[in-house]
Amino acid sequence: MDTVEAPFTADQAASIRGYQQSGVLRPFACARDDCPAHTWRGRSWLLCDEDGLFCPAPGCGYRQAWALAFMADWAWQGMRRAGRDRRRVRRLMRGAWGKARRVQAPY
After folding, report:
1. Secondary structure (3-state) at 99
2. How far apart are CA 1 and CA 14, in angstroms?
3. Rounded to an integer, what distance in angstroms lies between the CA atom of residue 6 and that of residue 38?
4. What strands, in cross-sheet order, belong to the sheet with 63-64?
């Protein structure tokens, strides 16, 4: 699956925020092992603005400058409707996460 890079348009950022809160699939989380949020809440879900995704934990500063394309164009809403067919969703995501890991920026 394709990725989109920050800066995001306002509509892309809104779609990513919606995805992060939707519960369709696991949202992006802070990738820093020393994030302050890990000590009091587990991993912190990332928030999104036009400049990219970021960890809301005070003092963390983790930013992610990309998202999967289906998160940014409201295509994830179709996954919500197909949620009963979890095997189909897993097959779609298997390829997406593999590609995302290869393009993820170092932190």
Report:
1. helix
2. 20
3. 25
4. 47-49, 52-54, 63-64
For residues 44-67, give the mean pLDDT: 92
How many residues appear in the chain?
Answer: 107
Cβ–Cβ under 8 Å, residues 62 and 69 = no
pLDDT confidence bin for 76, thresholds 50/70/90: confident
- The strand pairing partners of 48, in sequence order, are 53
Q: What is the DSSP string of 12-80?
A: HHHHHHHHHHH-SSPPPB---TT-THHHHTSSPBPEEETTEEE--STTT--EE-EEEHHHHTTTHHHHH
Instruction: Tell me the three state secondary structure of residue 85.
Output: coil
* Exposed/middle/buried for residue 18 (C-beta within 10 Å: 0-12, 13-18, 19+): middle
